[in-house]
Amino acid sequence: MRMMLPFGITIAIYLLIELLFIFGVKSLLNNRICKLFYWINSIITVVLIVTITIFYIQIRSNGNFISYTNMFYGITYFMLLLVTKLVFVTFFIINQILKYVIRFVIRKKNKFIIVTYIGLVFSILTFITITYGMFIGKNDFTVRNEKISSSKIPQSFNKLKIVQISDIHIGSFYYNSDKLISVVNTINKLNPDIVIFTGDLVNNFAEEADGYDTCFANIKAKYGKYAILGNHDFGDYSVWRTPETKQVNLEKIISHYNAMGFKLLRNSSEIISNGKDSITIAGVDNWGLPPFKQYGDLKKSIKEISPDLFSIMLSHDPTHWDKEIKFYKNIDITFSGHTHGMQMGFEKFGIKWSPVQYRYKQWAGLYQNNNNYLYVNRGLGCIGFLGRIGMPPEITLIEIYKK
Predict the structure, then answer these.
(1) Which pLDDT does position 374 carry in this prediction?
(2) How far is the CA of 135 from the CAs of 73, 216, 340, in angstroms?
(3) Cβ burial 270-305 (10 Å sphere, 16+ → b, else e)
(4) How many angstroms separate the CA atoms of 78 and 54, rounded?
(5) From CA 225, how far away is CA 220, in angstroms rounded?
(6) Strand 268-274 to strand 277-283: parallel, antiparallel, or no bridges (unpaired)?
(7) What is the pTM of this model?
(8) Which SS3 state, helix, strand or coil, does residue 281 take?
């Protein structure tokens, strides 16, 4: 019942925006065109709300990855219409306020409507932008390259190439799985020494990854492939019939990681050797601030790490770095994901902005605290809104040089 309340409030807000939208459109169209528009818009609105409601009920009663994926598509189209109409309604309300202010000042009725027309233009541009993000932006896989130096990296590991991927949310690729083949090909072209995957293989269900083991097993790395579990891998976002059912789902997800060739680091560490030289890689289960659970155990994962060795830490949620990891001198660089850059933002002309920055202090790119680095990957997949606007899916290449 508690889950239905925000869902109901969202629908109520949408219907209010819908009424204001129709009222605003009437001021721009003649009666015949307006009636046709009204019926088309009403049918689309009703079908969309009914569809989302059905998928929502299915998820709450007997969730599976197909119903989740379809729900996300419903949310995506809901967002497309909601945001587009909200932009128009905002300009329409401003127009109405200005109209009555002008009427009060000059004491005459007027047909002031210019701001509503401006709103129509911006509404159309918003529709085009979101549509672009849905069909093109989410598949615009981008390689981002960063270089750092450290006096701790052994000479034999100089120019170490680490490729990071994160947040695949593989169920969201259900209708365009061929895109993941291009991701694997891109990674291999980078000729990585180490490949790391910082969690969230799935949205919630192990079956999402069925059939993809061979695809990701084709990723090649000189010193190996390493991974950790993200918050979605633990299956916390579904109603399970029994705790045992949830545990079985987790075990199947772990088996997918293994079949894909990734060494899963669960609050543990590994030594990577090259002749007489060595570095360390460690990883923790997901650790986040509420409402996210803290499965990770940092002290356990680093208890075998020598402070003399260059060390790599994998932790899905970047808040873990800010709250704990950056204070440990025996950790040199941490790799995280989780935020997706909110799948929308702006990163051009020296400007870096996304709404997610108001929730996460470190949300995308490279950060530094003294000699301790953090890199936050923007993710490969999508969750909720199946699109990306100004925040393309990312493959990261970090090159580490001997200082």
Answers:
(1) 98
(2) 12, 24, 17
(3) bebeeeeebbbbbbbbbbbeeebeebbebeebbeeb
(4) 14
(5) 8
(6) antiparallel
(7) 0.91
(8) strand
- Contact assessment for residue 113 and residue 149, using Cβ atoms and an 8 Å cutoff: no
| C-alpha distance from residue 199 to each of 101, 170, 343 (Å) | 55, 11, 17
The residue assigned the tokens 């953090």 is 374
Structural domains of the chain, with CATH = 4-135 (no CATH), 143-402 (3.60.21.10)
Cα gap 71→384, rounded to integer Å:
8
Q: Which two tokens stand for residue 210?
A: 């069925």
Specify whether the CB–CB gap between 281 and 270 falls below 8 A: yes
CB atoms within 10 A of CB 251: 10
Residues 121, 87: contact at Cβ < 8 Å? no
- CA 101, 102, 108, 113 dihedral sign is negative
Q: What is the mean pLDDT of each run of 10 residues along the chain (403 residues)?
A: 62 82 83 80 82 75 76 87 92 91 79 89 95 95 96 95 97 84 96 97 94 95 97 89 92 97 97 94 95 93 91 97 93 97 94 95 95 96 94 97 91
CB environment 154-189: b (16+ within 10 A), e (fewer): beebeebbbbbbbbbbbbbbbeeeeebeebbeebee
Task: Using alpha carbons, select from 205, 163, 166, 139 the residue that is nearest to residue 338.
Answer: 166
